Amino acid sequence: MQDDHIYRVIELAGTSDKSIEDAVSSAIARANKTIRNLRWFELIQTRGHIENGKVAHYQVTLKVGFTMEGAA
Amino acid sequence: MQDDHIYRVIELAGTSDKSIEDAVSSAIARANKTIRNLRWFELIQTRGHIENGKVAHYQVTLKVGFTMEGAA
Amino acid sequence: MQDDHIYRVIELAGTSDKSIEDAVSSAIARANKTIRNLRWFELIQTRGHIENGKVAHYQVTLKVGFTMEGAA
Amino acid sequence: MQDDHIYRVIELAGTSDKSIEDAVSSAIARANKTIRNLRWFELIQTRGHIENGKVAHYQVTLKVGFTMEGAA
Amino acid sequence: MQDDHIYRVIELAGTSDKSIEDAVSSAIARANKTIRNLRWFELIQTRGHIENGKVAHYQVTLKVGFTMEGAA
Amino acid sequence: MQDDHIYRVIELAGTSDKSIEDAVSSAIARANKTIRNLRWFELIQTRGHIENGKVAHYQVTLKVGFTMEGAA
Amino acid sequence: MQDDHIYRVIELAGTSDKSIEDAVSSAIARANKTIRNLRWFELIQTRGHIENGKVAHYQVTLKVGFTMEGAA
Amino acid sequence: MQDDHIYRVIELAGTSDKSIEDAVSSAIARANKTIRNLRWFELIQTRGHIENGKVAHYQVTLKVGFTMEGAA
Amino acid sequence: MQDDHIYRVIELAGTSDKSIEDAVSSAIARANKTIRNLRWFELIQTRGHIENGKVAHYQVTLKVGFTMEGAA
Amino acid sequence: MQDDHIYRVIELAGTSDKSIEDAVSSAIARANKTIRNLRWFELIQTRGHIENGKVAHYQVTLKVGFTMEGAA
Amino acid sequence: MQDDHIYRVIELAGTSDKSIEDAVSSAIARANKTIRNLRWFELIQTRGHIENGKVAHYQVTLKVGFTMEGAA
Amino acid sequence: MQDDHIYRVIELAGTSDKSIEDAVSSAIARANKTIRNLRWFELIQTRGHIENGKVAHYQVTLKVGFTMEGAA
User: Fold this and answer.
1) Is residue I4 very low, low, confident or very high in pLDDT (cuts 50, 70, 90)?
2) Mind listing the pLDDT tens digit for each residue in E6-46?
3) How far apart (Å, rounded) are the C-alpha atoms in residues E67 and G10?
4) What is residue I32's predicted lDDT score, i.e. its pLDDT?
């Protein structure tokens, strides 16, 4: 039962031209294609690129935790 | 007059399934029920829970400052 | 060519009563009036002011990088 | 329902002459006398006093989160 | 006896137009009106406001520890 | 020979209802099922959950280094 | 109106053989010669030089914020 | 197109008896054997071992980012 | 009398194959052979070595304070 | 005389395909074109870009201090 | 000549019931009894003890650098 | 045997007009004159002095660990 508390934590970056939340979602959606059991994230850096004096896109770096089943 | 600058700072966490800003508001709204004179906040951590490969909710941790009147 | 990688980094704060993203944009728009070649930003602090138990405005502090042409 | 995720976080220090874990427990037991709904802790500092070349007691500083009901 | 080592730690800000030490004292004097058994402080931030090119007042943020008797 | 010094570092969390050391061991035992050549760990966070005013379990986050053979 | 909240932040060091506060003032007075609208400072480092076993002078490093008018 | 901005970040350590740069290269060369699309690194720690009063080898720890294709 | 508050602080690492507490004790016992008046410690890093998928020993790094009598 | 100790500190990034030291020099050489009286630097970040499994160039971020004469 | 730049850095704590500056001086004066060639200090922590709602004394922790002659 | 793992850690600064690696070596060579059994170092700060728009010398600050025999 407590096995549920054994996490592995990985670091990911995602981007969006809309918002910080959308950049978070893009990173998690990408990770979800290959990792099962994603449980939580922590936003550790928010950056972005500027073009012509405007934010071209937001780039977030996340720590993402997932419970381990078959592989570490 | 400068009494206005005597703050106490507390730490709070709030959540929202909509956005980071909405999670900030939920924490402040809750604190406002019992503490008067809330003045500022600082966002110190942004986390969230993931369900089925999507952000289920955002969870923010804030430092919140309020000017002290009757109680510390 | 690699000259493109010689940046200067400055620190700015911007505000918005709408969202964190809008506060980022306000700081960058202001910097863009006097500095050319803004390239990236990093969000280093998110704060805000509270009035009547609600967020009155968000205030973000950014590091902003720009490529140097004529002046440092 | 998500109200469950609205925490307040306080900082406590506890001591023990036995172990770090026992010092954690002493701080939490003390907090539990006056605060309901304690949910989690984070160990943020481990110190201790030395007497005659031995550890006289361990002193831990914790952040402790509790869900808010009636008071902030 | 070791109960003496069970602290709670709160965060306060105080100001003074005279000196950093005076700003520390103002914060502690204010806390002392409502909290008994204040024992130590740690200075965690020193800021100030500037008017007409001079320091108008110093603002210090402190962690303040007090031993717990009846309430956490 | 110095190849022995080429590490990869991953981040893991483990839990135990007994002690911090036991939570460390649980995380390492789990990683050992799928990763060979684990060499060292660093404890980067110690947290825990509280139930009924007692520590229900300790949760540690570790960085774990392993020497790389076939895969990064 | 909120334009008042658009700051630029610069980093300065000042010295004094009298006190930390006097070193802060020396840095701000110097900045005030060429920058208008200085609003706040944060003390980020306090160092000093020692001669003959005494403090010869204090050296403080400040972040200083000013509202932007014509130039960034 | 922006997919190019979805990174995964891993942590590696490499060594060299020649220089810090050479230790960086050894870590990256090793990672390149099994990971495609390495894009950037950040040096997060520089250590080394000493034998007979001389640096026997440098050991660097890097964060390395790579764009994700098939696997996270 | 306040001379009692003039500390020097040194950094030590100790190990144990039993527990974190035992590693702390080993470092302090070793320091006690040559330094009098050890007063307090702070645990600043907890690491360990892994052999065959188990913790072979814990290694702690401490700051240790001692009051100065004859020598700094 | 002590005026010599009034610094302004700016942040710069430079690159080189040769070495970390060369990237430091490129940033300083660029700053020297427009700022007089550069005195010291501190290396605050070392990053780099990777192409084809090799370091394509090093990128360093520096804080650079200069004594102020006519302008802040 | 550059030998002048080979420092050793130690950590000291001093106290004063007057001011932060006086606590710095007390630590340096004590170190000066047994160490020659003290050159600089950096203030890394400012704490204090409180008695009867007033600061009883300030306690500063310093890093102090000295050039090495005969002994490390 | 595990005695080998009882370290003391000191902090040193060394300089070189050639390279960061050479500055590391100068600090270690100096320490080696008076301390036996130096085992490892960690680079904690890289600074330098600038003269005429060029790096005059690099200055590194190291933590250096050595196993303790007769003296702490």
Assistant:
1) low
2) 899 999 999 999 999 999 999 999 999 999 999 999 999 99
3) 41
4) 95
Average confidence (pLDDT) over F26-30: 95
Q: Which residues of D touch I24 (CB under 8 A)?
A: 48, 55
Q: What part of C 41-70 touches B (C-beta under 8 Å)?
A: 45-50, 53-55, 58
| DSSP string for E27-61 | HHHHHHTT-S-EEEEEEEEEEEEEETTEEEEEEEE
Distance from CA of H54 to the nearest CA of F (A): 17
Q: What is the pLDDT of residue A23?
A: 97
Nearest by CB to A30, which of H6, H10, H65? H6
Can you tell me the distance from the alpha carbon of K65 to that of K6, in angstroms, rounded to the nearest whole number? Answer: 9
- Rounded to the nearest angstrom, the minimum Cα separation between A3 and chain H is 22
Q: Is K1 an 8 Å CB contact of chain L?
A: no
Higher pLDDT, F69 or E67: E67
pLDDT at K55 over 80: yes
Which value, to the nearest 10 degrees, does the dihedral of the CA atoms of residues L29, L30, L33, L34 take? -130
Per-residue model confidence (pLDDT) at position H42: 98
Find the mean pLDDT for residues J45-72.
89
What's the complex ipTM? Answer: 0.92
- Candidate from J13, J31, J33 with C-beta closest to C5: J13
Structure tokens, L18:
């050639």
Distance CA G18, CA E19 (A): 13
Q: Do E30 and B6 touch (CB under 8 A)?
A: yes
In G1-72, DSSP assigns E strands to 7-16, 38-51, 54-67
Chains C and B touch (3+ CB pairs under 8 A): yes
Q: Is the pLDDT of residue K44 over 60?
A: yes
Interior CA angle at K1 toward H19 and G60, to 5°?
A: 80
Given CA atoms I15, I20, I22, I27 in this order, what sign does their dihedral have?
A: positive
> Quick one: which H or E segment has residue C27?
helix C20-32
| F66 membership: H or E segment, kind and range | strand F54-67
Residue F5 structure tokens: 């010094």
Query: For B14-66, what is the HEC assignment?
Result: EEECCCHHHHHHHHHHHHHCCCCCEEEEEEEEEEEEEECCEEEEEEEEEEEEE
C45 contacts in chain B (CB < 8 Å): 42
Share of chain A above pLDDT 70, in %: 89
Residue G39 at interface with chain J, using a CB cutoff of 8 Å? no
Q: Mapping DSSP to helix (H, G, I), strand (E, B) and coil, where does residue C72 land?
A: coil
Q: Which tens digits make up the pLDDT trace of A31-72?
A: 999 999 999 999 999 999 999 999 999 999 999 999 986 444
Interface test with L, best of H16, H46, H51, H52 (most L CBs within 10 A): H46
Q: In terms of pTM, does the model score above 0.95?
A: no
Rounded to the nearest angstrom, the gap between the alpha carbon of residue B7 and the centroid of all alpha carbons in its chain is 15
C13 DSSP β-pair partners: C61, G7
Residue B17 and residue B19: Cα distance in Å, rounded?
Answer: 6
* Residue C47: CB atoms within 10 Å: 19
Separation in Å, CA of D11 to nearest CA in chain B: 9
Q: How far apart are CA L5 and CA G35, in angstroms?
A: 55
